[in-house]
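quick one if you have a minute, typing this from the bus. below you get a single protein, a line of residues and a line of whole numbers that encode the local backbone shape. could you go over both lines and see whether the tokens make sense for that sequence. anything you notice is useful, everything is just below.
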Amino acid sequence: MKKAIRKTAMGLMLSIPLVFTTAFASGVPVQEKRHAKPRVSEERIYRDIAWMASKDDARMAGTPGEHRAAKVIAQRFKKLGFDVKMQRFPFTRFESRGAALTVSQPENKSFETAPLTYSPSTPAKGLSADLVYAGLGAESDFASLDVKGKIALIKRGNLTFYDKTQNAAKAGAIGVVIFNNTTGKLGGTLGQQTSIPAIGLTDTDGAVLTNLLSSGQKVTTTMKADTKVINTYSQNVIGTYKAKNARKAKTLVVGAHYDGVDSAAANDNASGTATMLEVARLASQKKLDMNVRFIAFGAEEAGLVGSEFYAQSLKPEEAAKISGMINMDMVGVGDKVSVLTASADAQSFVADLAVEKAEELQITPIRGFSTRSDHASFEPLGIPVAFLHVSEDPYYHSDQDTLDKIQKPNLKNVGTLVTNLVLDIANNNSGSPAKGQMQLLNEVQVKQAHHDHGVNFVTK
């Protein structure tokens, strides 16, 4: 996600300074209103993050690890007495069989690297060419550069990985090396296959190469990438709490994606999924007037694939019965909470109420917008949404997104906020406005939102 919010598309985030109470920043338990008192257990949430983030590449979409996680989540929903459905959908999985980057001139050096997801392979012997530094990889960066037949070195930031790579290809480059702008390895996806291969480096290794180039020396490199595309499946795990008059009752959707990138993916997004499981546990103990549908979305990191599949599978009459959608993504690291819709002019009673509930807990949130998570699949249907996110996370999409970075007070606070929000809406304490009051995205915006997400994005 980006500087103000890591998953916000460039220019889509309404950046508002956030004033946090000492309670949130220091981890002091929030003061809860007497009428709510959800007993959220941050320890239970933390334990769930632990099993999901037990190893690198544990839950990449379409892998056995993601499938195992789906089964565990389904079992948890069943134990709560929910009606459980596994919604399977086809998915094209990317497999990396290795990558390498070496420098043969002006001196011999080797670097640890990995291909970006959906990068094509290089020839078996690799691609050998001079290296050229192309800044952030914007079209303007290439305007004054000769990269024809060369390999472009690009810094992460501002543009999607896909756009950086394709800009290089259009300028005549035969390959791209993107280095991180934060500590650690670069992990991410192009979102779709590019015309030239792209591999990632750490920020430290990127600095080594840029220093060589800035000294005026000719730098000759060989890059290798061995990749494979596999047709498999991912799935949404749906657990529905049914109200007494389930057939007539409205439905509230609460979601979080459970897949991750090629890392432990503790914060992104084991934290959101684990918090959702805790909210589900607390909701299951109540008598509610609405159905509450908890959905663990698959393949979010590949471009909101799971949530888009679910949203598009809804019949018009089914969508009309959904009163709102609450999404949690990356809630375990940082000290700024955001309540977001997908578009700037969306009117959402769910987001407005989420702000109220945050303020009741002495939290002053950022109110903005972002298309970078699963709520963006629901807003075009006229469903009011609220995307809950905590920032900043300097370990985003890196091998350092591990359990030890999770801040337990965040889990308690966000879990309490969302539980209060769910119970209030599902008890009909807050009425939903007419769907006509919801500002819909146009078709172009919807397509762009779905295309941009994935890890096609980068951080500033």
About this structure: The CA atoms of residues 137 and 164 lie 5 Å apart. The two ends are 8 Å apart (CA to CA).
